[in-house]
Structures are given as C-alpha cells and as structure tokens.
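Q: What would this complex look like in 3D?
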Amino acid sequence: MTVDPSLAELSDTLFSIAVALYSVAVVAFSAQLAFGRRPARQLVSAGGGAPAEAPAPPARTDRWGLAGLAVTAVGAVVHAGVLVTRGMAADRLPWGNMYEFATAVVLVGVVVYLLLAVRVPAVRDIGAFVLAPVVIALVATGLFLYTETGPLVAALRSSWLAVHVSTAILGFGIFFVSGIASVLYLLRLRSDARGAEAEGSFLSRLPNAVTLDRVAHRTAVFGFPIWTFAVIAGAIWAESAWGRYWGWDPKETWAFIAWVVYAGYLHARTTAGWRGRPAAWVNVVGLGVMVFNLLYVNMVSTGLHSYGGLD
Amino acid sequence: MTTTAPPRPAAAPQPPARPSLGARAWGLWLRWWRRLTAMRTAIILLFLLALAAIPGSLLPQRSLNQNAVRQYFADHPTLAPVLDRLYAFDVFSSPWFAAVYLLLFVSLIGCVVPRLGEHVRALRAAPPPAPRRLQRLPDSAELATPLPGPAALDVVEEELRVRRFRVVRRSGAEPTPPGPAASGDELSAEKGFWKETGNLLFHLSLVALLLGLAGGKLWGYEGSILVTEGQGFCNSFQQYDTHSSGALVDGSDLTPLCIDLEDFRAEYEEDLTAASYTADIRYGGPGEEGEATTIGVNDPLRVDGDRVYVTGHGYAPRFTVTLPDGTAFTDVSAPFLPSDQTTMSSEGALKLPDLGAGVEDQLALEGFFAPTGLMQGGVLTSIDPRPLNPEVAILAYQGYLGLDSGLPQSVYSLDRSQIERGRLSEVGRANLAVGETLTLPDGTAVTFTGVDQFAALQFSHDPGQVWVLGAAIALLVGLLALLLLRRERFFARVGPAPDGGGTVLSVGSLTRGGGESATSFAELTGRLQAALDERAPTPSAPPSGGAAPEPEVPPRDR
Ligand code: HEM
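A: Here is my prediction, written as structure tokens for the whole assembly.
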C-alpha cells in the first residue's frame, strides 16, 4: 500500500482553506453580534415556561449572520474534503491517528451546529462562539497533532475501526456543541444577573438562557447513546484485538469517566437542586474530560491506545 | 420523578412513650435508605465513581503493567509504599473503588425496583382522571362540534385508540369501565409506557452488566506463553509463562485444549509498519490430531467460549553446539525478547544446563539478535524487522547457571549473581551470521544455524463475557427507548357550547421526553377536529385556543 503524495498534499491545502473560511465566518458572526440591535430585553423566568424567542432581528444584521452561516457551510464542505482526500491518499478510513480524529471531531461539531442553526433560528446567534473554538481547535490540531499520511498499524485494521471510531467521533463532535452551549448558558446567566449593566454587550445578544440550556440538553441526549455505543463497540473490538473486552487501559478509563459524567449531567438536568447552573457545569466538565482524553492519553500516558501517531 | 417514593410505613403519630429500640433503628434505617436511594445521592455517587477512576489512569497499575509499577517504586521510593497501602496501584480492584460502585448500585436498585413495581401496576391501572383545569396543562385547546357530548367523546376515543392510546371514560370523578359502550363526560388517555420500560431496562441492565463482569472476574483466567514454530502447549497453569485467575478458578479443571504452532508470518508495509501477524495452528484435546486453522491480530481462535490470541511475536535464534568429544546438540533455540518493535532487535539467553554425562560445566549464550543486522562502529544493530540478514552478537559462558539454586530466574537472561561470584565466567564472544561458528577455548563449537519465529499467545477464559454483551445490548436498547420515546397523557372533557348548540371539547396533554410537544399536539387536535367535523351533520367552527409553548420537564422531587 502506497501513499499518494499529491492527494496528501491536497488534503493539507484544504485544511488551511477550511481554517481560513471558518475564520471569515467568525468575523461575519462577530459583525452580526456587534451591529445587531437586540430587541427589548426578555425576562427569563426560572425554570418556568420558556418565553417565546424574540422576533427576527433587523435585516442588516441577519445578513451578516446568514453570510456567516454560508461561509461556515462552505468551510464544512472543504473540511470534509480534508478527510476524504486523506482517506484516498492512504486508501483507508481517514481516522487512524490523532490528527485525523481531531479533524473529524471538529467537522462533526460544525455540522451539528449547522443543522441546529437551520432548525432553531435562535442558535444562529451563537455562531461566533462555536466557530471561534473551532478555529482554535483546528489550528492547534494542525500545529501540534499533525501527522504525515501513512498506513495503519496491524491492530487498527479491523472493520470495528469504522464502527468504533466513527461513533466516537460523532459522539465527541455532538458533545463539543453541547459543551459550548452550556458554557454560553452559564455566561448568559451571568450577563442576565448583571442586568442593565450588561446591556449591549456581546453576551446579551446570545439566545436566552432557556434556549441555550435546552440546546445543550438536547444535544447531550443525542450524543449520549452514540457515545455509549462507541464504548460498547470499542469493548467488542478490544475483545478480538487485545484479548479482553475491558482492561482499564487509560483511554478506556477516561472514556468511562466521560460516560459517567454525562450520565451525571442527564440526571442532574432533571433533579431538583441540580438543574440549571450546576447541571451546566457538569456538562462543561464532561467536555473537559473528552478533550483531556484526546490530548493527555494519546500524548502523555502509555497504553494500548497510544498509537496516536505522534513520534 | 415525582412518584417514586417506595411505599413507606406511616410514621407513628407522635408516640406517647419513647419508641422501642427496634422502631428507632428501623426509623433510622429508613431515613438512611431514603437518602441513599435519592436521585441527588445517585448524582454524587456517579461523580465519586468518576473521581475514583482517575488515579487508575494517572498512576501505573499492576493489572496493566507490572514493570511500570516497579519503575515507579524505584523512582519514588518514599511515596510509592504509601500509595501502595492506599491501593493506588490496584485502583480497580481496591476496596474503596468497590465501595463507590457497590453503593451506587445499591442506590440504583433501591431506586429502580420500587419504580418497577409501580410501572407494572401502572400498566394495569387506568389512566389517571383528567385534571380539573385542562387549560393549565402545557398543551391545550378547545374543539367545537355540533355533536352531543358522548358522541363527540366517542369520536375522540376512537381516534386515540387508533393511535395506541389506552383510553378510559369517566363521568365526573366516577370511573367507568373502559369501552365504547361506556359514556361519560370525561376522557383520559395515556401512551408511551415504553419510555419507562426503557428506563427500567437500562438501569437493570447496568446491574446485569456488573454481575457479568464480576462473574467473569471470579471464574475467568488467562495465560500467556511464547511458542516457537513447531512447538506447542496445553492449557494448564504449569505451562504458562504468566497467568492470572479468578478467586473461584480451580487450576485442575481448565478446558483441556492443546495448541501447536505450525507456522508464523509477520508482514510489513514499505515503511515497516506491521501490517499483519498470522499463525497457522492446530488445536484439539490432548493427544488428538487436532484441527488446523489460522489466527491473527483481530482474529482469535474461539472454541467453546475460550479464546486464543496472537498478542505479539519475536525471533528465536537457533544454535548447534558441538562438544570437544563430538557430541552435538543440534538446533537448540530460545526466544529472544524484542527490545525494539520497529526493528525487532531482540535480547535473550540460551541455557544448556545438561551437556551429558561427564560434562560438569554448564553452558549459556547470552546476547543480542538482529533480524537484519548492520555493523555500525563495531556494534551490531538491526535496521529492519524482517529476517533479511539475521545476525547475533553473543557472549558464551561456562560454569554454574544457578538454575537449581531455588531462586526463580528469568529465562531471558543469566543470573548475574553467579557471574559476580565467579561461578559462571565468560569464555568467548562473537558476532555471528548464519552458518558462522564461535569456538570456545575448550574446543566447544557454537554455530549460529538460523532463526525461528515465535508467537506470543494468550489463552483467555471468561464465562461472563456473553452475559456482559447481552447486558450491553439491553442497556443500549433501554437507553434509546428512554431517551427517544415520549410519554403522553391526553385528556378531554365535554362542556356545553356557549351558544347552546352542540358541544365544546376541552382537550389538554402532558408530554414527557421526545422533543417539542407543541407541534405534535397541534397535529393531533387538527386530526380530532377533522374527525369530529366528518361525523357532524353540519360544518362547525375551527378550533379555538392554541398550543402553549412547550414546558420544561418538571423537576423531580428530592
Ligand atoms: C450506574 C449509574 C447510573 C447511570 C449510568 C444512569 C444513567 C441514566 C441515564 C443516562 C438516564 C437518562 C436521563 C434522561 O432522562 O435524560 C437516567 C435516568 C434516570 N435515572 Fe439513572 N443512572 C444511574 C443510576 C441511577 C440511580 C442510582 C438512580 C436512583 C436514585 C437513577 C434513577 C434514574 C431515574 C429516576 C431516571 C429518570 C428517567 C426519566 O424518567 O426521565 N439512576 N439514568
């Protein structure tokens, strides 16, 4: 099996283009926030009925938002191209090392955001806050995790790679958006608490707290069974590749920790005394655990999973 | 979760005298039990479980890597023993880790079992009566129809039954037996029991999973062995290089299975990434001819619930030793352990303790093996994992090996203490390519004749595994039902139309889970109105009222 160098190079070029497009989208979304005039403040009743979303903002700012969305969508297509060309270059699924895994996770995050933005118009307003972490994550991925296109080590050559890693990427990408929504929810609550003083700040232009909380919860509810499945598929694969379905390898341990934290979030979200702020913090911790699992376990610890592709 | 409290004995109303010790103990127990099975406790225990797992990933664990633990002890001589006393190197089998998950599971059982009973009762019981003010429900509407009240409810009931609701009709607060014949001015309907069924299935599957895990640990065992091509082993703890077994495993009745390794192949990509390992083996009961098969990475042998894996490979250099009197030991070999997986340069020792009658000195070769050797500045290195140009760099020793000294020693290296004490001394050294010979001072000739491959094989027996898989699948099914389905209650009440002609139906619904409820409610009321209009002798007014915004999930109590 040989690696096609021109395709591999194309993949790297597309990566840069995707980052550039996402950066443009951040600018557009920021412009939307900066020039947008918020209609009268809405009060958010604690835990009660959701106030109806504000009517559509003035057309001019909406145009910035739509431009941001369009650029993001083009960016996502290019971003998908990064993975497709890499996969073609090495003639395999393009998630065999950390660089590819992280790139794919971020893509899922972007796509989830786009889908949400289409379905829930209020979510468009969080574009800047989703795309800025996306750009940061991609730049960090490119700088610190970059790996040459290459073949897979023997243990990774299994159809379970497709099942386990794809679902892990999907779950991670969804949790990424969920975690951002919870962070914004917490920021929004703070801005609400400051009242008139925060008027006109970026944060006061976010969707209302109830909407953010609901987006965080819905996405986590969607991501949790997928993550559960990814862990189970990983165990099935480990059984055939390593001789045991569960061995508390560091990666497995952190996948378990993340699972438990997200189960805690889903519980917290429906338990008196934990709803709202504390539950949102749990979700943020969950995302922290996912990122830690990706970075620390691949780069620092040694285990069966540490074929992250870094030398 | 508003209705989960287990049936509690009524608290004694202000006892006249001090309650008996038994009653007080019971009261205390109840209080603690309720606290333990409360949702809040479950959340705390979940976090404790997550926290408790962390040291297991940050510190080396005996179950994963004994050497790393030993290294940690060497690096932190004062800290390590303290940590060890806290089970920090055996986190996942430590009493405190067990305490956390056992408490969590007790809490879970205490939480879920009462719900199970309640769910079974709810399955048989009629849907609850309609609340007094339907317009206060999260979704509500009013439907006008010229039909008389009972006929209008008949239509609604029919439509709901088609949608798999369970329906009951009541007049006022009096329940009447369900059925189209019954009439009444009120209707309650309910569906979505699968959501709660999923919830219970999910939580109970967690318990089943834990039991399967524990069973596998107690009755399971594992053995590892290096097998050179042409050799084999039988499943017994005496034969394994290392093994581990559960507390309830009796070493004498392991599955009778023997494995012979006939051929082993390792394939590499151009950049020397290992592409595949395949082992041709023959397996069967002791003394049987056996069946031939091929196993490899990701592709173990599975027989009767037991599994045999290829976990690694390496080289066993072959030597022929000819003593001065002409006695020859032909093609003796020993596995050399790879010290570098990318080039497969390996280290090991070949020990020949018994060279025949009259030969007092024992002989040993220790050294370095390179599958593709290259001399660099007088030092042999390997530049390729494939055996393209096998070479060895060996030291030959004669004397006493100390094998029967009573102390265990590694088969991959010599006992240094015998060398230090002068009982074993170096008598020659050489770098040899295949076919070359090192002649020792006493005339003994050591010829490097070639190389065999060995496979690292692992035999695993885990009777809990299938059980765990079943529990995991049930868990996932339950989770999907729990998270994706919705539970819906629908109520309707008839009232006279304000203008006197016909009926106004107040309808309302309460939904849990499954996303936006307003749209599906609007759709349902639309269908109801259409059905009512169809039956009506004359067209009627469109529905009034509207869907209120979707409610948040009501908080659970406790
Ligand atoms: C092993 C630990 C546990 C895990 C992983 C777990 C996981 C979950 C998950 C993922 C949900 C779905 C949440 C949702 O509805 O959005 C859930 C729901 C629930 N859990 Fe647990 N749970 C555990 C232990 C417990 C315990 C100890 C209790 C009782 C105190 C409990 C009671 C419940 C209840 C009542 C629901 C409600 C479902 C509903 O109707 O909304 N769970 N659990």
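A: To summarize the key features: Chain A touches chain B through 62 residues (CB under 8 Å). Chain A has eight helices and no strands.
Q: Very helpful, thank you.
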